[in-house]
Design brief:
Elements: H1 12-17, E1 21-25, E2 28-33, H2 37-46, E3 49-52, E4 57-62, H3 66-73, E5 87-93, E6 99-109, E7 112-117, H4 122-135, E8 141-144, E9 152-155, H5 159-166, E10 179-184, E11 187-192, E12 201-206, H6 211-220, E13 224-226, H7 228-237, H8 272-283, E14 288-295, E15 307-310, E16 313-324, E17 329-337, E18 346-351, E19 354-361
Parallel strand pairs: 3-13
Antiparallel strand pairs: 1-2, 3-9, 4-7, 4-8, 5-6, 6-7, 9-12, 10-11, 11-12, 14-17, 14-19, 15-16, 15-18, 16-17, 18-19
Helix pairs in contact: 2-7
């Protein structure tokens, strides 16, 4: 008996034709690399790279109660103060304050929003929205447009200039976390000044029918095709969390260090009570906390689930880890008691029975140079 066949994005044939190494990821057949993870990560840090992120969910929420529905299920403030064209990152929590998913909400029009969900959680998030729409917010309408709208992330210091050159919109004219509709050589697309690499850049959302054409256009302009392997390396260097590894339904936003993305004082939201209690406990120094660490010596990589130790006792485990090519060192994330999560704390990572020294550091590991 075999599992369900892998889904394909609108760019699948393009990836295969260009020689990408394809792997199953979140139910999709996706490119993990083209030239190689290190080369692609370097291209994004120094020039511009493009990622196919069309596997991520795109859910339109419309109608008179669209804002109210999103304000309930999302921890950011999607209230009246959220202007047109704004994007806000936050969490989708269950009633216990656990993180079902993390994602960005874009306000496209007065009563029209789009929520981006992680590919592995897209169906769960849509069902979660549908539950609350049916129970409390009947004036909202939901539409899953993942198959109809592609998503290409163009990232790197040259990304903004390249997108400005091929469209009628200059992304540098707006601040990060904004979205606008633009024309790219006569074809319409949304362009959002967002990303998941730690670099400046945009996420382009054209019609799926235009995805392959736009991908080729970007490559003609010198943008490097990149796979999900480089994206994971880049996001870890930038200290950006991955749902399913660094957070899940058993994790609350406070212990994940994401309290700044929770509108604790803006009103009620699903899971608000437990999240506020977690914030109170954190202020008292209780509970666990996500810690970032750098290995103090060369050696084996800190991989997910490897035990973390302090004073010879296991105190947690690695959630994400690997080699950071931009920094030329091994780095990782993991949950430990709150008292051990402060910078300069000493930890050890048990890598297949070898105890390797590590030092807790502040996030992000890498910050892009500012002009």
């Amino acid at each position: 008996m075999t599992g369900a066949p892998l889904l394909q994005t609108a760019l699948h044939e393009t990836h295969v034709r260009l020689g990408a190494r394809m792997v199953g990821f979140a139910g999709y057949d996706m490119p993990v690399q083209y030239e190689g993870i290190l080369a692609e990560a370097r291209a994004v840090r120094t020039g511009a790279g493009v990622f196919d992120v069309s596997h991520m969910g795109r859910i339109l929420v419309e109608g008179a109660e669209a804002r109210a529905l999103l304000d309930w299920v999302h921890t950011a403030d999607i209230g009246e103060a959220m202007p047109l064209g704004r994007a806000r990152y936050g969490l989708v929590c269950n009633e216990d304050g656990g993180i079902i998913d993390d994602g960005i909400v874009y306000r496209l029009a007065d009563e029209r929003f789009m929520l981006i969900a992680n590919a592995a959680n897209a169906a769960t998030v849509f069902a979660w929205l549908e539950r609350w729409r049916a129970e409390r917010f009947a004036g909202a309408r939901l539409e899953n447009v993942t198959a109809d709208v592609a998503m290409l992330a163009v990232q790197g210091p040259e990304a903004i200039g390249i997108v400005a050159a091929i469209s009628d919109f200059d992304p540098s004219s707006v601040r990060p976390f904004r979205i606008a509709e633009c024309s790219i050589e006569g074809r319409r697309a949304w362009v959002a000044r967002t990303g998941y690499t730690g670099e400046d850049g945009v996420e382009l959302m054209p019609s799926s029918a235009d995805a392959a054409w736009l991908w080729e256009l970007l490559l003609e302009r010198g943008v490097v095709p990149c796979g999900l392997g480089a994206r994971d390396t880049l996001r870890l260097e930038a200290g950006l969390l991955l749902h399913g590894s660094d957070m899940d339904a058993a994790t609350n936003p406070i212990e994940a260090g994401l309290g700044r993305f929770v509108a604790l004082d803006a009103g009620d939201f699903c899971g608000a009570g437990p999240v506020r209690e977690a914030a109170r406990r954190a202020a008292a120094g209780d509970g666990r906390r996500l810690a970032a660490f750098e290995m103090t010596e060369r050696g084996a990589l800190p991989r997910p689930h490897a035990p973390l130790l302090a004073d010879g006792a296991v105190v947690g485990q690695v959630s994400s880890g690997g080699y950071a090519p931009t920094l030329d060192r091994n780095i990782g994330l993991g949950y430990v008691p709150a008292g051990l999560a402060a910078p300069q704390q000493r930890l050890q990572v048990d890598v297949r029975g070898n105890l390797l020294d590590a030092t807790v550091v502040a996030l992000p590991f890498y910050s892009r140079p500012r002009p």
